[in-house]
Amino acid sequence: RFPKFNRNTHFSPDLPKAYQISQYELPLAVSGYLEFELNGETKRVGITRVHIEEDAGKLVHGDFADYSLADYNRTGVPLIEIVSEPDLRAPEEAKAYLDKLKSVIQYTGISDVKMEEGSLRCDANVSIMPAGSKELGTRSEIKNMNSFKAVQRGLVCEVERQKEVLEAGGMVVQETRRWDEHKGITYSMRSKAEAHDYRYFPDPDVVPIIVVHD
Q: Aspartyl/Glutamyl-tRNA(Gln) amidotransferase subunit B/E catalytic domain spans which residues (predicted)?
């Protein structure tokens, strides 16, 4: 009922101000869950938090040899981000979860959730661990998945990539990777920062909002 806005500061080509307005200590909601059906079973995924933040720009990676383009048309547009717990264990679970989440958002009327138009987007974190282990491995974040089927395919590909890295004696690097739908691969974009790397502090231009329920 008392949402507060922060700035997270970091350098990225798609962030022309070098900071992003977001919510850190006091998001809209915390500690929820969403249930969905898959293969006759009910599965529950925890919702870590729901918060408002401004959108960044879009990096366009075409058939360019050594550079990318930056599209700033959506920069500063407000969006709602839903952060889920690491409760999904397979790519098909991720797709079923997104199907359910889309139907809930459609029912509330807060978005038309058209993924092809960018009104619904999904970034997926992937980590693998040995069977029987409870400790998650190093995660990578996958971007540029423009359909639920692309999410499923991208996750399958990334899981296999991480397996190959570990089986070859290598180490999985914490990074952001981009899904290439045509080639069926993910490739590295940049290193993935932790929350403390963003140096959150209160936004001096956006005052806290008191939400009153009538």
A: 4-211
The CA distances from residue 4 to 74, 77, 104, 195, in Å, are 23, 18, 26, 17
Query: What stretch of H or E contains 167?
Result: helix 148-167
Residue of higher predicted confidence among 63 and 53:
53
- Amino acid sitting at position 181: E
pLDDT digits (tens, 9 = 90+) for 3-39: 789 998 888 888 888 899 999 888 888 999 999 999 9
The pTM score is 0.84
Domain ranges of the chain: 6-202
User: 184: left (phi > 0), else alpha (psi -120 to 50), else beta?
Assistant: left
Backbone angles phi, psi at 121, to 5 degrees: -135, 155
